[in-house]
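Appendix B.2, paired examples.
Example (i):
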Amino acid sequence: MNDATNLTEYVTFTTAGQLFGLPIERVQDVFKPARMTRVPMAGPEIAGVLNLRGRIVTVINLGKRLDLASQVDATAAMAIGIEFGSESFGLLVDAIGEVLKLSDGDREATPVNLERKLARVAAGVFRLDGQLLVVLDVDRVLDLGAEPAAAA
């Protein structure tokens, strides 16, 4: 790796067996959701709301949001706290990984063969030792009004 390249730190996590990354500057905190309240008539990706240190946080099941076959167990799941506009959100994920410092020059464009819904929220990928790390664009992931909810 060249010292002259820009490095970005990513908080990594897995959902449905896929490795994802979020730029660390977008992450407010990582927490274990407790005492979530289900929101009546909310979309299937809304796991509920909770009070986190005095703030109301809307918890989104990332696997459902991206139509992935996530096996997230609400009792074992972790959440990544994100601010979007003036709202607080928690992305419910299967497991939190480590923080990786990666060279911006190594980030590749989103592959054309990436699943369509995932490709819409991806901001590129990194090829890591046998794994593909998909960098998520937080704004696109949290833009809940961007597409109509699928009929159940």
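Example (ii):
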Amino acid sequence: MAGGEYLLVALAFGLAAGFVGRGKGSSFFIWFVVGAVVPVLGLIAAILYRGELDEPERRCPRCGKILKLHVQVCTRCGEDLYLPDPSEVRQPSAR
């Protein structure tokens, strides 16, 4: 019966890590797997994970798509992006 109890605990930690990771802008499924495979440490990692919503953003000079500052190639048009002028960087709006 110990295997069934472990599966229940792993499922609970997987769901908790998944919801925390999704709330920070990441994949629910990836954090679910991490939380289920390594129950306590997976949830702690999801809590300490840096949120993608807080990253500074910039606009692609070719197509105008809004991208995170750390992106080096535009996902829409393929333009190589270099470090922009500080006046072009915008902080994400508070949600």
